[in-house]
Amino acid sequence: MQHNIFTSMRSLKLIDGCKGTQVYAINPTGPPPPAPGGGGGGVGDKLLHHLQDHLRVNSVRSKSNGTCQAPNGHTTVNVVTKSLLPFGLPEIDQIEPQIEPCLKFVDFVETLADLYRRIESCPQFEKSGLYIEQYAVFRGLSDPKLLRRSLRSARQHAVDVHAKVVLAAWLRFERREDELIGTSSMDCHGRNLECPKATLVSGYDPESINDPCICTRNPREDIDDDTMMEGEECSTSEEEGDMSFCIGDQEVRCVRYNIASLSRPFKAMLYGDFTESRREKINFTQNGISVEGMRAAEIFSKTKRLGSFDIRLVLELLSLANKFCCDEMKAACDAHLASLVCNMEDAMLLIEYGLEERAYLLVAACLQVFLRELPSLMHNPKVAKLFCTSEGKERLDLVGHASFLLYYFLSQIALEEELKSNTTVMLLERLLECATEAWEKQLAYHQLGIVFLERKEYKDAQNWFEAAVEVGHVYSQVGVARAKYNRGHKYTAYKLMNSLISDYTPVGWMYQERSLYCIGKERVADLNTATELDPTLSYPYKYRAVALVGENKIGAAISEINKIIGFKVSPDCLELRAWISIALEDYEGALRDVQALLTLDPNYMMFHRKMQGDHLVELLSPLIQQWSRADCWMQLYDRWSSVDDIGSLAVVHHMLTHDPGKSLLRFRQSLLLLRLNCQKAAMRSLRLARNCSTSEHERLVYEGWILYDTGHREEALAKAEESISIQRSFEAFFLKAYALADSNVGGESSTDVVQLLEEALRCPSDGLRKGQALNNLGAVYADCNKLDLATDCYMNALNIKHTRAHQGLARVYLLKNQRKAAYEEMTKLIEKAWNNASAYEKRSEYCDGDMAKSDLNRVIQLDPMRTYPYKYRAAVLMDDHKESEAIAELTRAIAFRPDFQLLHLRGAFHESMGDHVSTIRDCEAALCLEPSHADTHDTYNKVREHIEE
């Protein structure tokens, strides 16, 4: 009944009377189904009048919660609300936390310290493998920069071609360049790091990865070789030859010594005890080589070059080289064929030849093309068979291209694409077959357990998790408990988690897991303890919010879920808040959250994967005020200036529904996502911005930002300069200034950055970006102690509602010793900003004593991920000679936020207390996270020298 009424309501073109440019429009869905008993029209008419009144009255966006109030009570609203919740309210059993598909450790600091020691002390040729282990360890931190650094280091120290090929493709995949329209999988960015040609050069040369790549060099040597070969590519004359190979009824005249020099088997044949050594003519018909092929072999025996032989002849020579162990000729054929592989067609054609003839470089070149076409290529049956099956893995192994590294890369892509698929299972099985180190086996067993748990094959899942535990991965006991619980052994699962808490130093996830097997107050107590130990875990907040919904405390439920969304934005938490907002009849808030989560994950399924997110947007849209294009820009300015990043995301999503090709909006979207620390989604938005670009200079800017955000600053700078050479634009100058400021430190670079930002401000742009440029320019002036100029920049930024400029202005006032004015500026920012944890943190620096403590306590409540409050409180305790309390303060934060600065400070505290063992451990852990941190190096070296003395 309710669904039919709502369908009727949606089909009535409710906004026909509200003509004008609308961002949201309701499309008719056809004739409504007849209401049971034919009596549905009255309620539909009432709802129609209510919604029309709502649209007329609310011509300006209300600052309230956006609920629709029916003129005659709440009956109509309840009908709409229930229609929007066809699957009921959220249930606790449906929000079970996912087991993390990565290595997780009960003593993460010791793990980092041990890893750093091993990397520093291992032989150079083994470093690449250890950096891959570091990558696996860092996966649990969800920091893309750390992951990229580990992959870059692994590529830097790679020795063999296979590792270089896989790692270069992996680095490229991290940018997902497969999504960039018009790019080739074999494109590179001018450095050896990812260059497809450089990967095919064997040998250890860690200093070369940032050198200009082979693609940029003038191939003069190859041209000279070809020119020289033109005169040499003739068969041996009758006078020169002293023997012949007979193939069919034709002869190929050769020099016996030259052919014998190709290999030991040929030498034994032609100079040994075989009858062929005494014959001038040798029958070679049955050896599978043509006359042309044998002539090519004769030329190679004389010149040691392949010249311009066509591919068929080179393949014949490769086969001949294998039969007669001609190592030099095989290597030449292998390298020549590998250099010809430029695209998918070449790779698909030549991979079989390479595998059959065990041509290492040729297979590497083909693999490189395949890996650079991922993830789409995994749907190719031929490639899937090669990678996924045991037979394919054996064939790769025979030619030296089956490795844990390869299958680690492939299995991670499969886990992201489709967790429960057969392809994922097979790749993980191959991963396990390649695993030799303990951590490799832990990872493979654990991930197989996760896949089978998702497939609801609980017995197999339990076996895989138990295998992971047996080889030392304690966290996999979580999987064992889940599998046992699903097999009906609830108390056994509880005991397992209980013993984990007893045997190890408790951390938040342990209590979270045990809570799953408790009920009532015990469950609530465990989840409260989990939040106390690790406030970044989202499940406890979600559980408490859903429990409050069950008690009909909807407002309290929203407040609870707001706590986690305030510092950790994720689709599942936004979904839950939207769900609860619908129950609260806050349709505007619900729509905002659904639009924001669709920005993070465009294919998100709502209500426990039962409804497309886009469909819920369609249902919610008619229930709120409609905006024109101008309204949208005003709303975006409003939310941007109030630092309401989620609200801004929603407005941008709103605008993109009717203008999906607007690259500027995609770019704005990426900036907001970066603010929210959603880097994966931000990169996707940047790629879309680049693909939507209508001009070359604009496309170059977005490519530059993609490169900058993935650590390629010099390449980003080059893109900016190329864009400026085509057309001067705000974004090109801004990108160049940003990349230059981040690449160089010093007075000269500051002058260049100022000039670039001033050039940017002379170019057309909107207030949102102008405000950012003015803010950045003010920061540079403040760094150079040009305080009056800095003040002017910040004031101009504030005049166009760039609210964050209050923070820069406060800094200027502090530099002028106007502490009170600085405090007042930060207070203004706190009052204006929705997301104001950083404002409280900064304001604490401008006050003392209890006021500072109060602000920092507020920071921790709003964003426990910020490290400054813990460092400040620990420093205060140390000043009061409360060393143990200071250490405990840092230890509590490190348990859920292993930040290198926290580790460095705790190491320094340990040093001051004479605890050199703990100092060494903390410094090593910090250096594992940030190898270039000079202060930590100083502390570390000083303590080591003291111990040695």
UniProtKB/TrEMBL annotation:
Q: Which GO terms describe its biological process?
A: negative regulation of ethylene-activated signaling pathway
Looking up SMART domains in the UniProt record yields: TPR (SM00028)
Keyword annotations of the record: TPR repeat
Kindly provide the name given to this protein in its UniProt entry. Answer: Ethylene-overproduction protein 1-like
Q: Superkingdom of this entry's organism?
A: Eukaryota
Q: Which organism is it from?
A: Tripterygium wilfordii
Write out the pathway annotation from the protein's UniProt entry.
Protein modification; protein ubiquitination
In the UniProt record, does the keyword 4Fe-4S occur? Answer: no
TPR repeat positions in this chain? 442-475, 771-804
